[in-house]
Amino acid sequence: MKKTEKILKSELAKIKSIRRRTGEVVPFDLERVARAVFKAFEVTGEGGEEESQEIAKRVFRMLLDLRSELVNARKGAKFLPTVEMVQDFVEKELMKNSFMDTAKEYILYRNKRSELRKAFGPVPETVKLAV
């Protein structure tokens, strides 16, 4: 069983989809968040799999909190997180948990990818699968 699956399935069902930068709506994958954090930890050596899973769970809880606020403020409102939103939350959680070098690497990586998207357009699907 994947470690992020320890979050109750009823909670996981509350956020089913995410909007990519292209506007495409795809299934939300918490493991993908954990993998991205783990890759950043591999660069810095500040953490490992356990820490990446914990950061991913905390990001998910932040999304749930934001969803609750939105739904409570506007009855019947739909919540669809974006890739940018999730990445912003990852940065905040890394800094909040004193993984400063990892947060810096994560931010630099995001900026580099942003520049590449501006220069060359969207990242091909085959490259996305590597992340």
Task: Set down the secondary structure blueprint.
Layout: H1 9-12, E1 17-19, E2 25-27, H2 30-44, H3 49-73, H4 83-96, H5 100-120, H6 125-128
Antiparallel strand pairs: 1-2
Helix pairs in contact: 2-3, 2-5, 3-4, 4-5
Keywords: ATP-binding, Nucleotide-binding
InterPro entries: ATP-cone_dom
Pfam family, one: ATP-cone
Structure characterization notes:
The protein has about 130 residues and is mostly helical. The protein has one domain (about 5-130). The protein contains six helices and two strands; from the N terminus they run H-E-E-H-H-H-H-H. A two-stranded antiparallel sheet has the order 1-2. Strand 1 and strand 2 (about 25) form a beta hairpin. Helix 2 packs across helix 5 and helix 4 runs antiparallel to helix 5. The protein is globular and about 40 Å long. The mean pLDDT is about 90. Keywords: ATP-binding, Nucleotide-binding. It holds the Pfam family ATP-cone. This is Ribonucleotide reductase.
Strand content: under 5%
Q: From the helix content, strand content and strand pairing, which structural class follows?
A: mainly alpha
Query: Low-confidence runs (pLDDT<50, min 5 residues)?
Result: none
Number of strands: 2
Count, helices: 6
- Which whole number gives the mean pLDDT? 88
Q: What percentage of residues falls in helices of 4 or more residues?
A: 55-70%
Distance between the termini: 20 Å
The domain tally reads 1
Q: Give the helices and strands as they follow along the chain.
A: HEEHHHHH
Could you give the order of strands across the largest sheet?
A: 1-2
Measured on Cα atoms, how large is the radius of gyration?
15 Å
Biggest sheet statistics: 2 strands, antiparallel
Shape: globular
GO molecular function, one term: ATP binding
Keywords: ATP-binding, Nucleotide-binding
Protein name: Ribonucleotide reductase
Pfam families: ATP-cone (PF03477)
